[in-house]
Amino acid sequence: MEPVTVMAARAEREAAGRPVADKRMTAEDAAALIRDGDHVAIGGTLYSRTPMALVFALLRQRRRHLTVSRPLACYEIELFLATGALDRIVTSWVGIGLPWGLAPVFRHYVERGEARYDEWSHLAMGLRYKAGAMGVPFLPSLTMLGSDLAGALGLQTVDCPYTGEQLAAVPALNPDVALIHAHRADMFGNVQVDGYRHMDADMAKAARTVIVSAERIVSPEEIAASPAQTMLPHFAVDAVVAAPYGSYPHECYGLYGPDFGHFTAYAAATKEQGPAGALRYVEENVDGHTGFAGFIAAAGPERLAALAADAGELMGR
Amino acid sequence: MSDVTAEELMAVTASRLLADHKVVFAGVGMPLLASAVARHRQAPHLTIVLEGGIIGTTLLPGKLPISTNEMRAAYGAQMLTDITDIFLYAQRGFFDYGFLGAAQVDMYGNINTSVIGSMERPRVRLPGSGGANDIISLCNEVLIVTQHEPRRFVERVDFITSPGYLSGGDSRARAGLVGGRLGAVVTDLALLDFEPGSRRMRLRGLQAGVTVGQVREQTGFDLLVGDDIEELVPPSAQELAIYRELRDGPATAEPAADAGDLADRVPAGPA
Questions:
Q1: What is the enclosing helix (H) or strand (E) of A273?
Q2: Once rounded to an integer, what is the mean pLDDT over residues A154-170?
Q3: DSSP of B89-144, one letter per residue?
Q4: Which end of chain B is more exposed for a tag (fewer CB within 10 A), N or C?
Q5: Best residue in A142, A159, A202 to probe B by mutation, most B CBs within 10 Å?
Q6: ipTM > 0.90?
Q7: Candidate list B7, B8, B51, B239, residue with the active-site label
Q8: Chain A closest CA to B86's CA: distance in Å?
């Protein structure tokens, strides 16, 4: 288990400036804020509202010795592994989804001991980000008690000072960087999300640096017109990146569904070729384009329109 | 009956365990489908909660979600929130049932979805807990649905990802787990529960035409057998029709391009 650094993270946030300034930049410039060895938390969950434009920009930079945490990790984990960027995974589940079977590239690295997988329960991941977001070193919980997960992680318990009851002491997690994809943001970093929010708000508040991509960059007036939709205030956000279809091929709630055909092609390639299949995917889909917009253009307007129609049907449009 | 699949049999049998005006925290696949069947039959006020931050989903027939964190899982929901919030409702005691699948379950109801072999050098690294550890730890009563095979029903799991009755007796309570009374295990062969004292798995009912010997043969440990073994009522035509419409969509509608194909491949499991 990594050391709990919540007080150091607090000191950094205290000392940081909070300028109400234009924070817009390219995905590549934002990804350049990430250093070798960083702990990068990736927002969304599984194939929902993944900040894929930011993930692709980070993949392009070929960082080394990263730790990546997520609520549930999808195949982006395998892309980091296959490009040699990732040492350690911190999550509760890894795979694309049950119909695609076990993740072969993930298995390749973890079973050989070439990457480490710290497996927490789903709630424990949420409480780790929440403790980090709250500025406290741990949160007590009734989860994970008695399991072998607790033993493997060295999870400690704490006795309630009032009742004596035994609780799991889930340690805070303050990632170096959080990557979040949102529906809307203004240039100052006020961020709005529709639908379920995953663990994004706590993950971002816990992080030392927060990079947000958004489907649309909107005016501050548009944000102020629906303030209850705002998930993060400008002072909790460091960089804003415009990224239409920025979760593709994953879904973005209400806007477009996941591209299962894309997943299936990836799964077939990695089942057959293992890490080489994942590496080829990065070369074709990430390195093969100058930016994420090229990847989106290659998907083609018809495919994107079909995914938007899938979302529309579920939204009653 | 011969045209009823094992999945249909399990989902329908499990759906009958859910009472009206309750809240169920369902895993994806069979638990979610069984919960949806119950809502269409004896439990119209059953509230289905999913870990993606979704409360009160109704599902669009023929458009079943593969993950409980996607738009199809949110169809018709009353409330969308975040993941941590959902689990904290469970910790607070709001969820009557936690409903899970299991790749490997042992005689005390412990579930393994982490490793085959050792954690240090796994022979097979499985995906992990997802929400299963939390669901079994925090919901008021836990139901498990899974296919009855010796490789799934083992004496002791390689690794306790999600704690059942741990090593039996009062070991679960001693570990500090306050919720998660394990209610029932539903399979394609039987209905099982856990004997109050030892907390060992016990046979309570048999699917139609199945014998105690057949269940024992498909169980990888010495199964306790209850005093009054009931014969389970086969799925009715109405129950099967509800199940099949949810899975495939309305019989008269044009089939969706990928729905039937995907639904057929949705197995039981967490996350």
A1: helix A260-273
A2: 97
A3: HHHHT--SEEEE--SSEETT--B--SEEE-SSSEEEE----TTHHHHHHHSSEEEE
A4: N
A5: A142
A6: yes
A7: B51
A8: 9
